[in-house]
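Re: the 543-residue chain
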Amino acid sequence: MMQIMSQYFYHDLGFNTDASDTVGQDPRNLLFNDVLDRKKGYCLTLSLPYLCMAEKLQLPLYGVPAPGHFFVRFDSRGTQIDIETTDQGKIANDNFYRQRYHLQDTSSFYLRNLGKKNVIGIFFNNLGNIYRRQGLLEEAIALLQTSVDLNPYYAEAHTNLGNAWLQKGEIDRAIVEQKLALRYNPQMPEIYINLSNAYIAKKDFPQALAMTGKALAMNADMALAHLNRGIIFAETGKLPAALEQYQAALKLNPRLAEAYSNMGMVYRKLGQLDRAIQAYQHALAIKPRLVEAQINLGHLFAETKRFDSALEAYQNAVRINPELADAYLGMGNLYKRQGKLQQAISAYQKAIAADPGNAAGYYNLGLIYANSEATVSRAIRMFHKCIALQPDLAGAYENLAKIYHFHRGNVDSARYYYKKALALKPSHADTWLNLGVIYYSSGKIEAAIYAYRKALAIDPASEKIYFNLAVAYGEEGNKRKEIEAYKKVLALNPRHAAASHNLAIAYYYEHKYDLAIRYCDKARALGYPVNPKFLQLLEPYRE
């Protein structure tokens, strides 16, 4: 009877295996109406005609799972016949599947006869996995959870559910499902890889590395294990070791685009930008829709001032996925760099529309709006939105401080935001300088000097900071330190006319008239408009 059914399905009706998709990733091989129309499918859907016919004829035929596989079995009164539906209905036996999939007799799920609901559960697993790959995570999780509920010992359903939770950012849930998958099938190296993915996301690199080691112990030729080891080494700063692992992955699978893409990231960190570009281009030649490679290639082209190529890469990325905030940010940065501010604003707004939680979009809009008095109020709103999303971004506080300082003249608000910025980033000399200016203008000379000295400790080659410090010392009445500071300015920039002029005045009050005359004449030669009254004061001391 089984031979007659196989003859009918494969020879008379013309059903066959879709050799391009043996695991059911193509929806056409999963949806039964498409399978009937195309006369092509994979193991699960090619088993369904047998099961449907057997139900009609009341034959004891059952669906039977194996890891990543499905076949049918005739089972009646001690007689078992396994039928391999991907091989024209070839007769097999359980030993064939045990050896092929490294199965133990103790499995509570694999090689067991399934009921109708259990078969539906396997179908839900495959359908859920298709939704997961398309990014439809809510639908995927619902289907995969149903699959797990129908088949609690089904390792593939647990590992696929774990992958869906990981894509959704629920790392701990992902780890729980992957561990359940391993409990039910500890001989499946792919599950160890999936668990390593979750540990990588959790930044638990020792555990992630251990999982890849277990996968390789089962299958030394597993390219994905080397790929993940490369990611782990790259994340922990072991860049040469990361490159070795990516190269090992490519030796096993020369079309593993992700390995080339990750090599691009490592080469970029090593400063080998041309190699990084080549690696990303290799990745895209294999997998043109790999958006991470498109975006990173855009960043590299922008970094190397190949702006047209950068823009093309970003545009390719949003053609693949119109919701990619990073690509719009890249475009905005390009347009801003080229002075195309309206186009930059449009790109940043698209980045925010794609990801309302994108602080960088608001920050960059704030920078553009802060350049015009007419849009300063918008800039303030943008920086406040940025801070609400990323409270530790020092630049947002600093730019708010500058707006209140230079545009609004609101000294109290400016001082508040400069302090907030410095609490987050105390190594920024310009912020200390501006805070010093605020203190000086408020008559707090000692505080101003403290701020200027903090700025100098960070940037000891800044003539601007020395000049402000000299002015503050002069206001304090400390002529010795005032003179020292002005001399530092002139050592850094001998053509600093204002420093020469102020130094001349300082020497005059110290009764060092020859030096006062020398620096006054230098200031005049540099074009400084010296007060005629000061010239008159110096005149008696000229020879």
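The beta strands are 16-17, 40-41, 61-66, 69-76, 79-84, 90-92.
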